[in-house]
Amino acid sequence: MRALARNKMRTVLTMLGIIIGVGAVICTVAIGQGASNQVQEQIKSLGDNIIFISAGSINKGGVHMGSQATKTLTEADGAAILAEVPFIKWVSPSVGYGAQIVYGGNNWYTHASGVSPDYLKIRHWALAAGSIFNQRDVDVASNVCLLGQTVVKSLFAPGDDPVGKTVRISNLPFQVVGVLATKGSSPFGGDEDDTILMPYTTVQKKLSGINWIHFMMLSADSMDDIQPAENQITALLRQRHHLRPNEENDFIIRSPTDFAQAQAQSGQVMTILLASIASVSLLVGGIGIMNIMLVSVTERTREIDVRMAVGATESDVQGQFLSEAIVLSLMGGSVGIVLGVSGSLIIARALHWPTLVSPSSIVIAVLFSAAVGIFFGYYPARRAAHLDPIEALRYE
Asked: What is the pLDDT of residues 23-66, one digit of tens each?
């Protein structure tokens, strides 16, 4: 430390590359891990290992009519899937309907979803108040509904309890039996709280006037079961819909978690890329340490030779200069860690980006900075240890 303190400015400038490199790596990794953590939370908010099946497209005169144009997907298909596909634990037939909801002098246009009682279990969606409708409500197509938080805020005054109130949807009275907990935005940017849930049979018979379903949501036992479940469901639905081998599916199967996981993988790749770019500063800092140590060896030739003349071994001299390089790296790494953590907090507050500083990234930064000191300090230390005292004294 005394040797490094003799040239304070040179020591600080030498550490600067390590400081910037470690700080930049911690910041970029924190941003990447924060984004990945946010995506994982969004995956959890989607539901419990969801599989989404929607009515498919049909071809009329060479023209594909688009998604949900077929009328072959029924609630009986859902019952068959639940009975014959062992990987599936919950199924909710669903029918969508755009609806104007009215309460008192307020009205709000939103999306009404006809679902089964298992829908909330599939989506991991809690209730803020009241209770969900039951299977009997589905069987008799009851006029009951659950309101999302956005709908509640648009129709009711603050502090007013919607449970038990009667609202009008498409001129039909519906009793509010429950209020959904806040869900927030979906991974695709939509407002999940801007919704009404009711029995799917009610939407079929009293609002849409149809006897088929638009889509169904299913929950697999685990993430690994999603792909085999999709394969079995495809075979089962093709058999139930009497499709010939050369005919296209009249339904669409997909898993929203696939998209979210692809986003997470993209975020991890970007994190690795940014961290790799930031690591270049560590390389530059290491080269700076090597250059300064070489200069130090040249300047301190007399000191080295006097030590060797009075009995210091080559390993003693080499250990002296190598330890100085490691100390420079560790000091720079420590300051860089403080800078990186502080920078992550500033980024999170100023730009509202999610950041997550993990202990592993700090440990890796410390080990990496020590490795830089050892790697780039070895050559100058070895050169100092192999100086010939006689030649060096003649040089001095």
From this structure: 888 888 888 778 777 766 666 666 658 888 988 765 554 445 44
Give pLDDT tens digits for 161-212: 999 999 999 889 999 999 999 987 765 567 889 999 999 999 999 998 898 8
Q: How far apart are CA 239 and CA 7, in angstroms?
A: 82
Structure-block tokens of residue 227: 């792909």
Q: Cβ neighbours of residue 146 under 8 Å, at least 6 residues apart?
A: 127, 130, 132, 133, 176, 177, 178, 179, 180, 196, 197, 198
H helices of 95-143, in order, are 119-123, 135-140
Q: Which residue among 249, 270, 291 closes a domain?
A: 249
The answer on 344 and 274 residing in a single domain is yes
SS (H, E, C) 137-203: HHHHCCCEEEECHHHHHHHCCCCCCCCCCEEEECCEEEEEEEEECCCCECCCCCECCCEEEEEHHHH
Judge if 265 and 245 occupy the same domain.
no
121 lies in the same domain as 156: yes
Judgement on whether residues 171 and 297 belong to the same structural domain of the protein: no
Same domain, 268 and 297: yes
Q: Which domain holds residue 203?
A: 71-249
How many whole angstroms separate alpha carbon 196 and alpha carbon 107? Answer: 13
Distance (Å, rounded) from C-alpha 7 to C-alpha 320? Answer: 17
Evaluate if pTM is beyond 0.85.
no
Cα 257–192–252 angle (5° rounding)?
Answer: 45
As a dihedral over the C-alpha atoms of residue 333, residue 339, residue 340, residue 342, rounded to 10 degrees, the angle is 150
